[in-house]
Queue: 2 jobs
Job 1
Amino acid sequence: IPQTEGTHPAWLPDAALVHLAAADAVVLGDGPLVDTVRTEVAHAATLGGGETAPRPAGGASPDRLVLALLDAVPDDAPEQLREAVDLVQRAPGDEGFVEVRRTGAAGTTVTMLATTGHGLLHAWFHLVRQGAAVLGVRPEGDRSGAQASLRVEAHEPAHALRVLDHWDNVSVHPVMGQVERGYSGGSLFYDDGALRPDLGRVRQYARLLAASGVNRVALNNVNVGRREAQLLTTHLDDVVALADAFRPYGIRVHLSVSFASPVVLGGLGTADPVDPEVQAWWAQTAAAVYAAVPDFGGFVVKADSEGQPGPFTYGRDHADGANMLARALGPHDGVVHWRAFVYDHHQDWRDRSTDRARAAHDHFAPLDGRFDENVVLQVKLGPVDFQVREPLSPVITVMPQTRVAVEVQVTQEYTGQQQHVAYLAPQWTDAMQTRPWGDDGPAVHDVTSGRATLARRGITGGGLAAVSNVGQDVFWTGHPFAQANLYAYGRLAWDPTLTAEAILDEWVGLTFGDAPDELRTTVRDLLSGSLDVYEQYTAPLGVGFMVSPTRQHYGPDVDGYEYTAWGTYHFADRDGVGVDRSCATGTGYAGLYPPGLAATYESLSTCPDELLLFFHHVPYSHRLHSGTTVVQHIYDTHFAGVERVEEMVTAWEKVAPLADPALAGRVGERLAEQLRSAVEWRDQLNTYFFRKSGVPDGRGRRIY
Ligand code: BDP
């Protein structure tokens, strides 16, 4: 079990495994991932002071816990095991497993059956997550007798592709540093231009990711610098070493590649996707990668966006570009994650028709049906850029013939940079569970999983992708509570129908399982609702941004982006605020959705309050559905947001002595900064809107 001295165990502390110590588990099967399961089982056994090696099936007592590959169960297996095999109706897929649990007079026996070692590993972590109850141990005080029962449950991941993208640079970037938008110290992989010599923490990380559900990791930043581009060729050894570290936990590695690689690495005169020499270069390069890393996952590409090269240079479109790479990877079962984050960041701010929210839609909607089967279009959840509140990207609803993946930002770039507590899962579950075509239509997760009837038969969904929030920090994520976001992402990628609250309970239970109730309840309460608090004291009603450009998007600067070319505006003046994205008078963006949703957003009378300023420009006196005016809403929420942070600080102070001192210290320090920053947000926002509007606070509070 990879553990690094001094590093926080996150959601896999030994306390979370101890209930499995007494299970005396039997593991049947062969292969590298089955060996990983054996190591896990042996480690758990040591926690109870038991055997360190798993024993063979059968024996003196009945086996309480068996983890077996279906084809490794011998014909003369003990009856309990044979019976469990007979109960499996359909052999689980690659990563799935079946759990058979029987409770009888002799106690509870659990049999986990899988087709592959990968499935068995997920079965193991499923047992870890369920805690003591898994073996029929009832909570203290529960005196009800054990009911005889038999339960058979099949588990499969909703998405085959559950990717975590690292925006890590090999060489330290002069502005972005070692990890672009990283708030957790250095990179786990690279240190100042080279691969870290000791990848012990990467192995530990792989274990955590596998336990959450993630199965793919992209190893470098989507903005690909020269040294990063070379991972594909001259520095392929780095990729080999990282793949070796991830492999025992079933995680495949991917690379972000530069579209200009044939020029910058191959010395060709062009990277034009229709040029046969360019195609041959990519095919050879991909073949060399697969020769070194046979289970390599594929490429991630940010093209024609924020300065990255792309097919537009050669007058080609994004289907030409993506398919060319897909054909190089196809023979090796690789995929291209092609990002839809394409917009012009040099737009003319006076021209409202160049609405940045429209850009991805306008580039990609016409290309539906043209992408090869191993291209996944990776679409940011919202149409602009990972803000605390955005509507769903309409791209997700207009590509029925394309494999669509939704991309979320686990790293808290715009949500407090891991200084502020912001549990992001409610944003993701709301979006994944939305039914954009109406209550009877498919949910977003049916699109990403491929369960929705896609117009093109036989293609599967694109899954989920996310930007990682980890680094060298002892707590992995800077703010210890930001671990919950990473955990939640993995769990949702596995099962997007889970609720944010249920995942939070799981995370608290695993991470703080042996802590006093009071501490666990407080941690839970601080996280639950924390995103609402953050939204209250930052940019109002879906208008977005207002973050400081000079402080790398941390803290407020209401007009920081207002007169720049990035396309993220609020259009506040003395009369009103908000972006008119209606079809009647604005950019027409509201009309890009399926009809019901489009109508809801188009009309002021039906547009939800929380997105009002995303879709409409309104006077400060406009009355919200909540009954209050826009300007009064801004004042009220900003005062309330700070008050709620004050309550969080007090709540934490009460329980901090019950926590590990290092963790308590870190959380306390971050909460103090959150409070300082929330006050700054409140005062800047309230002052700004008071001066623009001239409308005083209806409750007479002092505005600084
Ligand atoms: C923006 C980040 C920038 C990323 C970009 C992206 O500020 O660092 O490169 O997203 O997703 O939000 O490519």
Note: The pocket of beta-D-glucopyranuronic acid is lined by residues 180-181, 222-223, 302, 306, 341, 385-386, 413 (CB under 6 Å).
Job 2
Amino acid sequence: MPTPTESHSPAPAEAGTPVIEFTDVEKRFGDNVVLKDLNFSVARGERVTLIGPSGSGKTTILRLVMTLEELTGGYIHIDGEPLTHEQRGGKRVPVSKKQQKKLRTRIGMVFQQFNLFPNMTVLENIIEAPVHVLGQSKQEAVQKAKSLLEQVGLPDKADAHPTSLSGGQQQRVAIARALAMDPEILLLDEVTSALDPEVVGDVLNILREVADTTNVTMLIVTHEMGFARDVSHKVMMFDGGRVVEEGHPETIFTAPEHERTQKFLGAVL
Ligand code: ADP
């Protein structure tokens, strides 16, 4: 039987334009500088997991990519296009709302707390953005939504309301909703942290399948180190808003070099 690392595709080559590129990124909340001089890039189809202690800035990175937080310094590029600001005439100027909206349609995010629209059915949650943002016909969006509900194991829940579902079921709907947009980039923010332990495995298996069967680029924040090890091409260890170490999951999890990584993994593994 192949080991997990042998069973999935190798890391994509680092050639070509990165799908996500952070350049000198700074994020501050008031006087609190959470990220400083952060530079990294993610290649097409690459799956990168961010690990590190609570408060080290991991979720903020995902929220910046989703434009849910305002970038206070530096640049983020998606497929080579500026997401929030660009350099023009030696100055850092904001990009248009239209440009930002266009790029954001290529990005899907699944949250710790599901964030489904409570006043809509499961089906309505899934077709909302394909119809209203991508301009798909309702018929096309419904057809795709139904096949995604099959994929996440909830074919009979299309007309249910989120509040009638368990946490694990709500998270599966949230995954279907993100996939309905055919995102190039999928951001996973501690998607199993709010779930009962017995359903965590089901949700992770759905995401493993997405990783195995699509070329979607993933940026993952998780405390599930087994999952991180199985699906990631690269793991980045954060502390205090900086990358202290990065590398192949096998190396990071079995022979971390940095003392901070050793301590962190010693505490969580
Ligand atoms: P992690 O995901 O690694 O636990 P976060 O990105 O959630 O870390 O948080 C990093 C830091 O940013 C923390 O100090 C946190 O208090 C701060 N922070 C995050 N979001 C906000 C916010 N909306 N307002 C003020 N501070 C915030």
Note: Residues 1-7 have pLDDT under 50 and may be disordered.
